[in-house]
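Entry 14. Two folds queued back to back today. First construct below, sequence then structure tokens.
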Amino acid sequence: MLGAIAGDIIGSVYEHDPIKTTEFPLFDHYSRFTDDTVLTIAVAYAILEKMDYTTSLKYFGRKYPDAGYGMFFYRWMFASRSEPYNSWGNGSAMRVSPVGFAFDSIEQVLNEAERSAVVTHSHAEGIMGAQATALAVFLARTGSSKHEIKQEISTRFCYDLDQTLDVIRPYYSFDVSCQGTVPEAIIAFLESTDFEDAVRKAISLGGDSDTLACITGGIAQAFYKSIPQTIVTEVNKRLPFEFVSIIDKFNDVYGCEI
């Protein structure tokens, strides 16, 4: 899941200042983790500790309240009640990568992705976005080719993965929906040559940059099996100690390569 967190941090400075190129500094003084990282950590922690997702998401969200959550999630995480709010937003997809790393069959991954999503994102599109992302991570982790990943995701979820980034990029704009984020993030991975290239391509679309790169980064880590050490170092410098500890424990338990 460190790949997802790296994508979030690298994309953070371009979320409200979109770019349409792959040529940009990976990190600067303002690069930071956002809600994508906090909630990815929350999902990983819930899996590690066998905790329900609602409890973990609320715990970490309340502990880091200034990470840039969407309005509906922010209200939900501080509410005394915990009913889902029927969201179709990409928040369910950006936090789900630990599921693809931790479970060992397609059925388990799909079921667990739905469980992680439905506590807030009970809309069919919100659930589907989480499932598609987690399944892409799982397939990448377990040796599927890019062609096989593309076929499985496009067939199962009816996402159009035949577009190219060069076609998408000129018209693409900020989009917080799963259906307007997850296919584009997967295409960025499919066209990439390595982890860094995948993240750069996702951000170059000029949309919800941190979330696009978070989704793409999780899949790219699973497929390429490594993240450049320079990126790992810069990411860890920007994370609280408890996040690094949870990532390390998760990697140890589930054998994630970075």
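Second construct, same run, same settings:
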Amino acid sequence: MHPTTDGGAPRPAMPDLAALTPEQVERVERLHRDTLIFDALTTSVLDRDYAQVLRAAGVDATNYTVADTSLAQGQLVQDNFDMACRKIAMWLSLLEDLADGSGPATSVADLQRLRSQGRFAVFFGFQNGSPIEDNVDFLDVFHRLGVRFVQLTYNARNFIGSGSGEREDEGLSDFGLAAITRMNELGIVVDVSHCGYRTTMDALTHSAQPVAVTHANMRALANTPRNKSDEQLRALKANGGVVGVKHMIGDMVSKQAADTTVADLVDHLEHAMGIVGLEHVCLGTDFSGTTASMGTSDAEIMAIRGRWPNAYLGSRSRPRGFQSIRELPNFTAELVRRGYSDADIALIYGGNMVRFLEQVLGS
């Protein structure tokens, strides 16, 4: 969750694009102009300027975090039912103000309609199941309010199960099993990105619908509990779900965090594809912030991470060549350089998520 801020610094150079032929550069530009791009996880502060940044990068839709775990007056707070409802009310009001360029989406049909109008589609998502508290009926309320993604846990334990930062992972509770059943019935995506190993495996086994890892990287390449192991990826494939690579936190990409580049991220994508296949990967950048004064600061992020030392290892850094969503073309350029076809890239950037959402959310 909560990488560093995005738009306050000057836009970095784009070394990967510079290494391409003029024909390849034109292809990257065309892909960003014509391809449906769905970012499976965004935590940025959304305003008119940032909506334009997203659209300029070619992003058509995202799962936007509207409830999570945050730092308030030095204390970690897991959102409860009341807090989540207040945040959703704020988001609905915000999207009314941005209605000329953005709009809420609860289905693929909404996404396609908004895209045809040149508008950005916002799916509401939770990065913590804590707002459900201990009442599965609250899921019905949130579904009516437009929530379509619920990450079962953040790094800590809640009524549903254990997060990736817990010293002992006890997996899903009986309540957690009931919550997944209700999410399946309603058409809410079960997200296990921050879940502990056993909680993740329990969800993949219990869910009757495909499960999403909206934003994580691969433990085989960076051994931190926040990343997903090959065994978990195999279970995800059997479940029919999707896994999205995230741009951030250097120690989730490489042991040499400061040396991480956009090419390292594509390595994680390719490792996942080697296990789950091309049809089950996506992009979940987890970019946050619009200006240097907005979003979660580095100090706050480190304070949040410090609460769960088991979940993260080493230092944090942003990969060179992919330090903001503005540089998504660099990721595309690396895919082009490695020989991926337009059809392959279209699946990675949006096609797989569209198919997944059609199955989970229904019509």
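Quick look at the second one. The chain is about 40% helix and 15% strand. The mean pLDDT is 88.
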